[in-house]
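Predict the holo structure. Ligand: cytidine-5'-monophosphate.
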Amino acid sequence: MGKDVIIACDFDSAEKTFAFLDKFTGKKPFVKIGMELYYAEGPSIVKEIKKRGHKIFLDLKLHDIPNTVKKGMAVLSRLDVDMTNLHAAGTKRMMEAAIEGLTRPDGTRPLLIAVTQLTSTDQESMENDLLIKAPIDEVVMHYASCARDAGLDGVVCSPLEAGKVHARCGEGFVTVTPGVRFADGDVGDQKRVMTPAEAKKIGSDYIVVGRPITAADDPVAAYERCCREFID
Ligand code: C5P
C-alpha cells in the first residue's frame, strides 16, 4: 500500500487552486478535490489537475439509491481519478453498485473508500437524529466491515480509529485519515488530531492535510515536512 500525504485543496476557484499548485515545482502532490472546488469548477478542474500530473482523490461522498450511485460512479471513472468515496450508510447494495459503476471496461478502477460516521456526528446526534443506539465506535467498525464485505478498498476515519480498522478489516484495508496537525501547529476546528508521525505509527495509509499546508507561510516546506514525518 502506497503511503502518501494528500493535500486537501479546499479552494473555491480554479484560480486559487492553480496559484497554490504552481508553488510545487518538484514532486507533484496527491491532491483532494472536495465539494467546494468541484461544485465551483466542475469536471474540468479534475481534468486540468490530472493533466498537470497529480494523483486525485475526488471527495464527493455519494449517497443515493444504488442505480443512481452506479451511474454517477461510471461518469466519475471516466474522469480518471485515483480515489473516490461514498457514504457506507447507503448500504452494502449501494456500495456494490458503486463498484460496478466505477469499474472501467478494462477492469481497472479508482480506489473506493467509504465514509462511516462523519467525525462531526457524535453519540448524542447519532442517537437523537439518526435513531442509532449502538456505541459510535461499534457503528464505525460495523460500517467499515460492511464496506469491506461489499468489496471496497478502505474507509475514511480519524487517525485514532486507523489501528482498530486494520485489526478488524485487515492490514490491506486502506485507512485515509484527516485531522492531522503538526505538534507545534494550530488545531483549528478539528477535535481529535494527530501529528503525521503519530499517524504513521498507528498505521494510517494516507493522511489528508488541508490548512497546515494550504495556510502555511511556506506550503511547499510544510508539505515536505509532512512527507518526512509520515513517509520517510
Ligand atoms: O484543513 P484540514 O486539515 O482540517 O482539512 C481536512 C480535510 O479533510 C477537509 O477537506 C475536510 O473536509 C476533510 N475531512 C475531515 N474530517 C472528516 C472527513 C473529511 O476533516 N471526517
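The chain has a mean pLDDT of 95. The two ends are 14 Å apart (CA to CA).
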